[in-house]
C-alpha cells in the first residue's frame, strides 16, 4: 500500500505535458502519432490547420467512435481558418499507463482522415498484435490484403473489463476538466 501511495506521489510530482500537433503543415496526421505517457501525464493537442478531431476508438474498430461502456474522449471538430492567428487546444490526462488508448480523426469530409491513416495512440504495445502500426494499418484497410497476415481482424474480442474501467475513469477525469479543457493559445 505504501509503495503504491509513494508511486502515485512520485508520478504526480513528475507529471509531464506531452504535446501533439494535429494537422501540421496541412498533413492528415498527428505528430507524433504514438506517445508513451506515465500515469498523470497530460496529452495536449494543438490543432494547427483544417478541421480535425481527436476521438477515442478501440483497437478492434479504429475508425469508429467508442460508445461502450460509455462515450470515449472526444475533442469534437476543431476548425482552424486559413488566416487564423490563434489555434484551438485540447487535453486529457492519462489515468492508467498500462492500458493503451486508441484514437482517430473523425473528419470524413471530403475523405475519411482515419482511412488515410490519421490515427493516434497512447501507450500502444511495441510488440505483439496490438502495436500502433497494426492499429494504423487496420484503419487504412489492412483487411485489403497486403498488410493483413498476422494483423488482427477488424472484429476483435472486447477489451478486458479493466481496460474498460480505465477508459471510463479517464473520461471521468476529462469530464471534471472539461470546462477548462479548451483554451486558445
Ligand atoms: C503542464 O501545463 C500546465 C498548464 O499549462 C502547467 O500548469 C504545468 O506547469 C505544466 N507542467 C509541466 C511539467 O510543464
Ligand atoms: C512541418 O514543417 C516544419 C518545417 O518544415 C517541419 O519542421 C515539421 O516537421 C513539419 N511537420 C510535419 C508534421 O510534417
Ligand atoms: C468541421 O467538420 C465537421 C464535420 O465534417 C462539420 O460538421 C463542420 O461544419 C466543420 N466546421 C467548419 C467550420 O467547417
Ligand atoms: C479571415 O478570413 C475571413 C474570410 O475572408 C474573414 O471574415 C476574417 O475576418 C479573417 N480573420 C482574420 C483574423 O483575419
Ligand atoms: C478496401 O477494398 C475495398 C474493395 O476493393 C475498397 O472499396 C476500399 O476502399 C478499400 N479500403 C481502403 C481503406 O483502402
Ligand atoms: C489499468 O489497466 C490495466 C490493463 O487494462 C488493468 O489490468 C488495471 O486493472 C488498470 N488499473 C487501474 C487502477 O484501473
Ligand atoms: Cu483529420
UniProtKB/TrEMBL annotation:
PANTHER family cross-referenced by the UniProt entry: EXTRACELLULAR SERINE-RICH PROTEIN, SERINE-RICH PROTEIN, PUTATIVE-RELATED-RELATED
Keyword Coiled coil in annotation: no
UniProt entry keywords in alphabetical sequence: Signal
Protein name, per record: Cupredoxin
Signal peptide: 1-15
SUPFAM superfamilies per the UniProt record, alphabetical: Cupredoxins
Amino acid at each position: 500500500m505504501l509503495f503504491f501511495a509513494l508511486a502515485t506521489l512520485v508520478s504526480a510530482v513528475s507529471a509531464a505535458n506531452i504535446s501533439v500537433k494535429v494537422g501540421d503543415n496541412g498533413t492528415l496526421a498527428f505528430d507524433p502519432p504514438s506517445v508513451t505517457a506515465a500515469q498523470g501525464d497530460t496529452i495536449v493537442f494543438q490543432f494547427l490547420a483544417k478541421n480535425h478531431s481527436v476521438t477515442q476508438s478501440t483497437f478492434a474498430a479504429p475508425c469508429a467512435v467508442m460508445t461502450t461502456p460509455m462515450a470515449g474522449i472526444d475533442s469534437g471538430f476543431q476548425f482552424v481558418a486559413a488566416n487564423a492567428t490563434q489555434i484551438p487546444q485540447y487535453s486529457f490526462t492519462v489515468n492508467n499507463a498500462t492500458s493503451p488508448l486508441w484514437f482517430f480523426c473523425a473528419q470524413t469530409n471530403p475523405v475519411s482522415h482515419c482511412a488515410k491513416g490519421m490515427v493516434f495512440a497512447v501507450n500502444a504495445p511495441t510488440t505483439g498484435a496490438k502495436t500502433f502500426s497494426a492499429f494504423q494499418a487496420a484503419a487504412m484497410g489492412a483487411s485489403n490484403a497486403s498488410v493483413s497476415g498476422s494483423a488482427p481482424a477488424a472484429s476483435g474480442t472486447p477489451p478486458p473489463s479493466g481496460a474498460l474501467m480505465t477508459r471510463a475513469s479517464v473520461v471521468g477525469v476529462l469530464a471534471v476538466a472539461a470546462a477548462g479543457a479548451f483554451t486558445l493559445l
